[in-house]
Amino acid sequence: MTAVDVEPTPRRDRLPRRTLRDPLAAGCLAVLALVIAASLAAPLLTDYVPDHSVMADTLAPASDAHPLGADGVGRDVLSRLLYGGRTSLLGGTLAVLVAFAVGGPLGVISGFYRGWFDAVAGWIVNVIMAVPAIIVMLVVMAAVSQDLNVAMVVLGVIMAPMVFRLIRASVIAVREELYVDAARVSGLGDGRVMRRHVLPVVVAPSVIQATQVFAVAIGIQAGLAFLGLGKASQASWGAMLGDAFTNIYNAPVLLLWPGVAMGLTILASSLLGNAVRDALGPTGPRPVRKRRKRVVRQSAPAADVPADRLLTVEGLRVSYPKPDGEKSVVEGVSLTVARGEVLGLVGESGSGKSQTAFSVLGLLPDDAEVTADRLAFDGQDLLGMDTAALNRMRGHGIGYVPQEPMSNLDPCFRIGFQLVEPMRTHLGLSRAEARSRALGLLERVGIPDPERVFRSYPHQISGGMAQRVLIAGAVSCDPRLLIADEPTTALDVTVQAEVLDLMRSLQQEHAMGMVLVTHDFGVVADICDRVAVMRGGRIVETAPMRQIFAAPGHPYTRTLLASTLDGGPVRGEPSARPGAGEPLKGMTS
Amino acid sequence: MTVPLLELDDVVVEYPAKGRGGKPFRVLHGISLTIAPGETLGLVGESGSGKTTLGRAVLGLAPVTGGEIRYGGRAVSRLGKRERRALSEDIQVVFQDPFTSLNPAMTVLDILTEPLLVTGVARRDAEQRVRTLLDRVYLPHDAAHRLPREFSGGQRQRIAIARALCRDPRLIVCDEPVSALDLTTQARVLDLFTEIQEATGVAYLFITHDLSVVRHISHRVAVLYRGDIVETGAAAQVTEAPEHAYTRRLLLAAPVPDPDRQARRRAERQKEAAS
Predict the structure, then answer these.
(1) Beta carbons of A157 and A102 less than 8 angstroms apart
(2) Which residue is closest to B165 within chain A, CA to CA?
(3) Of the given ranges (A150-159, A235-244, A307-316, B13-22), which has the lowest mean pLDDT?
(4) Record's superkingdom (chain B) (predicted)?
(5) Which domains can be identified in chain A, with CATH numbers?
(6) Looking at chain B from residue 123 to 142, which residues have their Cβ under 8 Å from any Cβ of chain A?
(7) With contact defined as beta carbons under 8 Å apart, do A514 and A482 qualify?
(8) CB atoms within 10 A of CB B154
(9) What CA–CA distances, in Å, run from B154 to A4, B134, B166, B190?
(10) How far is B202 from chain A (nearest CA, A)?
(11) Predicted ipTM of the assembly
């Protein structure tokens, strides 16, 4: 065995750096830094004491003495703005610290250990959330302290439940990860598991939440001060707004300065949170989204097509736009399916087999670029078709059986409805006709109690049942071609055998053509007439099924067949046992 | 026979019912098994049979509510946290999904040194050991400084195997370790498992739904059906001439990559189902 090649990939960036590369985030940080610096440097920037009032300067306009003028009781506006910034920043910080000091540890412990602690914490948090915040703060300020900072501490407690819920949810999500189980099995204690695996995941959402709490706290603090609460000696933006409001007709400009300061600070803080969230998302610039292009390069005359030909694919290419050019997933695939023929499309993951099947159905994502020399179904050109014609073709002409039965049934609707709707649309049946046909189909696909399944929701039936339902749906409108994408991969082996039996008998009954995408040569041997082997977006070999097994032509086909384990030798007795006689390590420690 | 490495004696696993007064949900109804040192016991079952729960019970991740699990003769199913951690030196795991079993934020080096550093191994020794481990699973040394997302499924599973081997365990619980892999990758990873076993004498509890995989890797096979072991025996016997009806059904349902044999197998299965 040789060492496995690993493709080198570009270095990754840490979150702070990635955030800073966003110009919006950098701008927000600059604004916040400016506000903080100005507030801290207030004594250097102004000689006035913010609550010193000089009656002669009442509503004085901007001048050398008062760069921003003076307010309704003759206090210098600039000094109040700068010192007010201290109050706001301190208040916001207090609220954030208290909210996280209370909510953070509770959230981590609740999420990690669950059980009774979680139940009790959840109950307390609900009680706190039920209390109206503003009334509590008014009561505290009236009865306990006039200090705005005390109100902010109380606000922190009131906002702790938000932090609690966020952190608890993140911790629960990580706790379920297999790598946390693996860490426990590796012998890590709870403390280490938390520090190494759980807390790093919690940090980013916490930063985002902190910026929001900060912004909200500044707003609420200003609201309280505007109402006239707080100590008179405590300069604040809210108190400035209150003063400006009483003089709104004499000096409207007084509203401007605290308004701008608050607006900028709150905006910068909120946008910074958004930028951090964006930086957490997918990296790199997103490719420009194009409308789907389905292009026929040249429509060759259809004269040379044999009469029993159902599907013709020639020179099919599928690619996706990527930041660094295009990523090609199917590179010139040509295949044909005759009426009543089962074509196996075999390959490993990433070979392009599903992409090939989906382009026949016209079900590729919008940004996929599909071109082909020819893509024709029963004499009709599929690529040139508009959406309406394509919709008529799907279901009526081409049926589809997916890999994951459960995710292909809508959990909100009863199974009966999901079967009946397409038949009413495509076949124009009445409700009663469609219903009796659906019940007949459910019975045909081997569902023991069709009436009950008809009335059930998808979550009430098993995966094997769901796949039978989807097969019933796929054949309900008498398609001439069935495209099955790994239809049995998600099923247990005993169920797989029954579903394959069902598909074979339905295929023969209706003389349907079929494209069966699979990675399992056992399934190929069971049901296929011809086989196309795919690798790296190309077909390396197409041959009748028996020939593929008896005399595979391409080396890759031979490799694949050699990798199947069936019929291989069974392992004998355990032979070499070095260390088998040693004492067990766990016993000695 | 010598003292078994691992012995399960009438093990019951139940999960408490939702709400008050409900009946607990019993996943395993009294499982008895043994694994000898250096042996692979294949555990086959379909979804819902309880095979993953059995593996988790051995690892101490599922609650054992009845019976006893003995490791080297010592009862280990109700250990305290500290004692359980000490056992991690001997019993390790490789999970099915190589995409979620490695922490996406940690480099391979961090992942592989973590189990060593917790036991007080010096960082330099741990990093030396990582190089040996990467050699053992045929990954290049520069893989150490990459993140898991830079590797394919098969390569990630090699990293997971290297992590399991970190502390030279005596038993590895392998929970469907090749089910998420492509055919050719699957064969190579299975060969790696065999090679490591022959070199180190580690025992495997190899959990899978695939009879051909189990036949390839196991010395003995146990078949699990709805929380009960229905059949245990040598790999050749269970996978070629099964005694229990369920095992026979399982065997006949698995399609073989040979048109003629598959046609015979299908006919036989349909005959059996009809009778």
Answers:
(1) yes
(2) A186
(3) B13-22
(4) Bacteria
(5) 22-50+66-280 (1.10.3720.10), 293-407+480-563 (3.40.50.300)
(6) 138-140, 142
(7) yes
(8) 19
(9) 9, 14, 19, 11
(10) 8
(11) 0.88
